[in-house]
Every structure is written in C-alpha cells, then in structure tokens.
C-alpha cells in the first residue's frame, strides 16, 4: 500500500474538501481528520487512483503531502 497524509491549510480544513478530489472507492481509501486527509491505495494502482489529478490544482497548492514514514518520524521527534 501507498499511504500519504495530506496536511490541509486552515482555509481548506473541512470535510468539504473531499468533494474536490477524484475518489475511486474501489481503488483507494480516503478519510478526513481534523487538519488532514489520510489517503491509501495499493501501489500497483496509484496511477488509476486519481491522486495524480490532484497535482496542479488550487487545493494541491494549499496542502502539504507526506508519506506515512515521514509522518511517523515527525511524530517521534515531537514536531506535532
């Protein structure tokens, strides 16, 4: 699985942001939590997941995306 955490800027911190994404429930799983979106997709289906369509959008410019290993390391260092 490929898992990413999409940290949302304050102006997009709402579950309404899900409506701006191309979500394919048969392929990927996405969940809104306060301040972030949790996105997972099987590695062999990343190109089909809709994640690549996010690049270049206004929403993409107002978030930062980190993989789960980076988020774990940041948590371990106490950075959030």
Describe what is shown at a glance.
With 80 residues, this protein is of the alpha+beta class. 16% of the residues lie in helices and 29% in strands.
Description:
With 80 residues, this protein is an alpha+beta fold. Helix content is 16%, strand content 29%. The protein has two helices and four strands, in the order βββαβα. The chain has helices at 58-61, 68-76; strands spanning 2-8, 29-33, 36-41, 63-67. The chain has a four-stranded antiparallel β-sheet. The two termini are 24 Å apart. The model has no long low-confidence stretch (mean pLDDT 91).
Unreliable stretches (pLDDT < 50, length at least 5) are none
How much helix is in the residues?
Answer: 10-25%
Question: What's the total number of strands?
Answer: 4
Number of helices: 2
Summarize the biggest pleated sheet: 4 strands, antiparallel
* N-end to C-end Cα span: 24 Å
**Helix-strand pattern, N to C?**
EEEHEH
**What radius of gyration results from the CA coordinates?**
12 Å
Order the strands across the largest sheet as they lie in space: 2-3-1-4
Percentage of residues in DSSP E strands: 25-35%
Q: Which structural category fits the helices and strands?
A: alpha+beta
Structural shape: globular
Mean pLDDT: 91
Summary keywords:
80 residues; 4-stranded antiparallel sheet; alpha+beta; 29% strand; 2 helices
Would you spell out the secondary-structure blueprint of this structure?
Elements: E1 2-8, E2 29-33, E3 36-41, H1 58-61, E4 63-67, H2 68-76
Antiparallel strand pairs: 1-3, 1-4, 2-3
């Amino acid at each position: 699985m490929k898992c990413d955490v999409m940290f949302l800027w304050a102006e997009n911190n709402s579950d309404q942001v899900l409506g701006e994404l191309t979500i394919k429930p048969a392929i990927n799983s996405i969940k809104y939590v306060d301040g972030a979106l949790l996105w997972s997709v099987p590695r062999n289906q990343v190109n089909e997941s809709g994640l690549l369509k996010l690049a270049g959008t206004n929403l993409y410019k107002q978030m930062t995306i980190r993989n789960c290993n980076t988020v774990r390391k940041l948590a371990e260092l106490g950075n959030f």
